[in-house]
Amino acid sequence: MINPYKKYRIDRLFFHSFAVVLIAVIGVTAWTSYSNSSKALVQTTSHYQQQLLDELNNEITTRLVMIEQISLSSSRDSELINFLLNRQDEFERYRRRASVESALANLTYAIPLIQGIDLYMDNPILSEQHNYIQFRNLTDLKKQEGAECLAKSDFCWSKEYNYPSAQGDIPVLSFFRKIVYENDYLGVLKVHIKANEIRKLLAGNSDGSNRIMASSEGQQIIKIGDALDQNDWSQWIDLKSNKSGYVHIPAKDGSRDTLLVYSRMDNSIWTLIEFTSWKQITASSLKLAEWIGLIGIAAVLLVLLLTHFLSKQFTKPIKKLVTAMRLYSVGGDNVELPVDYENEFGYLFSGYRKQNERIEELYLSLERRYEQQRKAEIEALQANINPHFLYNMLDQLNWMAIDAGQDELSRILELMGRMFRIGLSNGNSFITIADELLHIECYLEIQQLRWGEGLEYRIEAASELQELYIPKLTLQPFVENSIVHGFNKQKSGYVSIVMERMEDTLHIVIEDNGAGLKQPEDRSHNRHTGGYGIRNVRERISGYFGESYGIALGEREEGGTRVEISLPLLTDPLTKKD
């Protein structure tokens, strides 16, 4: 009897995959039902809440704008202005104070929303402690709740706080307005609004609402119910925008999932915000999703009985393959896989055998390459002996010169050793400017031993520039050209090397007082393009950095040659090799 799991395609045999499809369909159905229904509930809830908040915002704005307008008209009252100007005698001043107090008291009695009024001024005539109208010293204003907002505006609102009165501490909001007359700052009118009245307006006809009234500056003015803290909701909305809307605030650090609906109107500086528990809104949607899930679980349990047997037949050849892969070793005794599978498992086993054969071939190839690499490393180590042999020979010659009393020759050999080490630089194409200048100083010192006092030189480079990198042997061809060609008909010479930073460029100037670019005896001999060494430097700069940098040669007006080299500022060496 033929085993069908070794003969036919797995995608035809393994029809129990419908179990996965069933689970996926049930899951998608449950999630889609929950998502769409909860979205519809959230949109409906936010729509009605926003309409209500717009109405409340309009009503609250009307009340508070009335207070602002009353304070504006009071601050411009001529009787109040004349009183604050303080240009009367004491009797007249007391009379005007009584008139101002009476006018402000009438406002308090006429408008139930007003709890009291404070007038801050210079040299006030103090009132009784529990009077609704208080005359206070302007210097005490900074100590009052919310007064700091006057630093940015001529009028502003404070947040809710407790105000001491004859009935005890009463929660109030305060409106501050500066009193200015002909650019003179006379005082501040502070109107106290009963916070409980605003709170009633904010609550509307809803019981258990969680709402906040905030200003356009982001300050939370009044809060009712179990609203979120300002740090939790302020990042989700822009209070300076005139747009209304709603936001889903996810749970974070112990807080709950919340629907935030906010109302912001064009004619209002206030933003009304309402918070509703997300769980409360989506409770019915979640219940529906739970019922769909329970039905799905029952269906899946029935499918498990069928899929258990099929899954065992599916996993058996896979386990064999995994075991063979775990125990595989190159050149060892490996697990033999069955050869009687003709379906996808047969293709998989065949591919695994071919892969092992390829691994064996690659392993042998790597062994050969490893042997070749070892030979190349040995040859490279042998090649490194030559520079070390040269260093050792120069060192031996130096000691021989010292023993023979040849101090100048000893110094030349020592300088040559330094030049060789810098020139080789372990194969690096870039060295620090400090090493490049040391190489040039060694060369110039050797030439000074030859010229005596006839050769002078100057090198200027800031210490921070010497930490930058430069292509090695950049300066050597130009300095050597000055000495060999520029001073060949002279008994003395002068070489100057100056390095400066110009924005993002390293600017190098090399000057000499030699014969210049054209020799006087032979005008046809032109040094403008330079010899091999200079061409080599040109090509290296062009290859490394492009045409933006390079070399310019010219003659000095007083005689001699001037070379200008521009290079980028390199804080790290490039990886290119010569």
Tell me what the structure shows:
The structure is a single chain. With 578 residues, this protein is α+β, with helices and mostly antiparallel strands. The protein has 15 helices and 20 strands. The strands form five sheets. Strands 1, 2, 3, 4, 5 and 6 form a six-stranded mixed beta sheet that branches. It is flat, with a radius of gyration of 47 Å. The two termini are 74 Å apart. Residues 380-386 and 520-529 have low confidence and may be disordered.
Topology, pairings included?
Elements: H1 4-7, H2 10-13, H3 18-75, H4 78-85, H5 90-110, E1 114-121, E2 133-137, E3 155-157, E4 161-165, E5 168-181, E6 184-194, H6 195-203, E7 211-215, E8 220-224, H7 230-233, E9 245-249, E10 258-264, E11 270-277, H8 278-281, H9 283-326, H10 344-383, H11 385-403, H12 407-424, E12 430-432, H13 433-451, E13 455-460, E14 469-471, H14 476-486, E15 493-502, E16 505-512, E17 518-519, E18 522-526, H15 532-545, E19 550-555, E20 561-568
Parallel strand pairs: 1-2, 13-15
Antiparallel strand pairs: 1-6, 3-5, 4-5, 5-6, 7-8, 7-11, 9-10, 10-11, 12-14, 15-16, 16-20, 17-18, 19-20
Helix pairs in contact: 3-9, 4-5, 11-12, 12-13
Low-confidence stretches: 380-386, 520-529
**Main beta-sheet annotation:** 6 strands, mixed
How much helicity do the residues have?
40-55%
What's the end-to-end separation, in Å? 74 Å
Number of strands: 20
Task: Give me the secondary-structure category.
Answer: alpha+beta
* CA-based shape: flat
Helical segment tally? 15
Q: Write down the overall mean pLDDT.
A: 80
* Radius of gyration from the alpha-carbon trace, in angstroms: 47 Å
- In terms of DSSP E residues, the strand content is 15-25%
